[in-house]
Amino acid sequence: MYVDLGNALSSVASPGVSRESLDRLDEDVAVAHERIERGRANAEHGYAALNLPGTADPDAIKATVEPVADAEALVIVGIGGSALGAATLADALDSEVDTYVLDNVDPEHTTALLDDLPLSETAINVVSRSGTTAETLANFLVVREAFETAGVDWTERTVVTTGEAGPLRDLAQKHDLPVLKVPDGVPGRFSVLSTVGLAAAAIRGDDLDALLQGGRDVAESLSGSLFEAPAYAYGATTYALDTRGASVNAMMPYAEGLETYAEWYAQLWAESLGKDGLGQTPVRALGATDQHSQLQLYRAGPRNTMATFVRPRERIDRAIPATDVDGLSYLGDATLGELLDAEFEATEASLAAAGRPNVRIEIERVDERGLGQLLYGLEAACVLAGELHGVDTFVQPAVEWGKNAARGLLGAEGKFEEARAVEEKTRLRVE
Ligand SMILES: O=P(O)(O)OC[C@H]1O[C@](O)(CO)[C@@H](O)[C@@H]1O
């Protein structure tokens, strides 16, 4: 994983950070690194996630999913951190196994998916750390019923990933289902390199060892200086730019296979840093596509945005056929990959020319090792940014209010004051 901070410097951009400020900030990075290392050594909640490249057991995961290793299709039933990591790997990596993610409770979408699936050839990976998330459990009950209606034994097609206890763990035990434990101390959004992201990857036949090796590559680079650790360089720079006004971070990977990665990043950044009135707003974008939708704002809108450009250094390419159409012959001399790289460098430079901060992140290829580096790198960057902001990176208390309100509206057991607030909504209807 390579990071280039050049276009974030105050000599190029505003908001920007001076080299002297980065040198001063590096002292705080050293202190934060010590804290992180201590947290990792004691396997403290959250910090333990940065140990996964060394603690995850790919062979045990592969053995557990063996019963469904013959699947032609896979449905991942989960939400948030229990879906986005696996979905990111599935979007980026090729596999013989057609993979679908049920991470919403839209009846039309769920029904259409179940109607199309070859259920007898389909594996189900239901994932929930708490085992109580309404959307995940509701979708699983619907999926299970579809299998039963089709006369397919769902207990033969299901692998469960969940915590030590809870309704999903109870269900797995009741039906003697293969179950993988979510490791202790690993919040959902930091769990892609654990059983949470790797169970589906194993069913798909992805190279788990290479994914974890990618994580180890970056873990070994973590040190007390941002000038030696690319992940910390990125984390520290987002912090420096955020505190100077860049309260929005547009994540713009230049690879179709990394589109879901930008969604994964959005949860990581929003749930980890969005608290105590602080937090950089993550925006999902895709290069070159969103040059033609969002770039106008980032180049000429309020000076509150930084952009993060991600690209693989190598990709399988395809020539653009020669053409005699006037004004287009230049395209015929290039390839799609060359055009995409030109767009990448041109867009990066266009923001710099307008004095808008941006950072470049590169990996060798969009393969298991490259993804392991990118995902672990962003996790480490996020943990460091959380230390510098002085927030508790590993909790997300603000999400509970809405969950309680929804449970109350559906008449779940217990008292949910929040549900009353929904009924007492202030109204100013215009029809
Ligand atoms: O894995 P679980 O417990 O189903 O939670 C799913 C997601 O919901 C959240 O708790 C937010 O509501 C996320 O932090 C988490 O990744």
TrEMBL record:
Classification via CDD domains: SIS_PGI_1, SIS_PGI_2
Catalyzed chemical reaction(s): alpha-D-glucose 6-phosphate = beta-D-fructose 6-phosphate
Q: Which residues form the SIS domain?
A: 64-211
State which pathway it belongs to: Carbohydrate biosynthesis; gluconeogenesis; Carbohydrate degradation; glycolysis; D-glyceraldehyde 3-phosphate and glycerone phosphate from D-glucose: step 2/4
Biological process annotations from GO: gluconeogenesis; glucose 6-phosphate metabolic process; glycolytic process
Q: Which Pfam families match?
A: PGI
Query: Where does it reside?
Result: Cytoplasm
Which InterPro entries does the record associate with it?
A: G6P_Isomerase, Phosphoglucose_isomerase_CS, SIS_dom, SIS_dom_sf, SIS_PGI_1, SIS_PGI_2
Q: Name one GO molecular function term.
A: carbohydrate derivative binding
UniProt keyword terms in alphabetical order: Cytoplasm, Gluconeogenesis, Glycolysis, Isomerase
Active site: which residues? E271 (proton donor), H292, K403
Recorded family membership: Belongs to the GPI family.
Describe the function of this protein.
Answer: Catalyzes the reversible isomerization of glucose-6-phosphate to fructose-6-phosphate.
Q: What name has this protein been given in UniProt?
A: Probable glucose-6-phosphate isomerase
Which species?
Answer: Natronoarchaeum philippinense
- Cite the source lineage: Archaea, Methanobacteriati, Methanobacteriota, Stenosarchaea group, Halobacteria
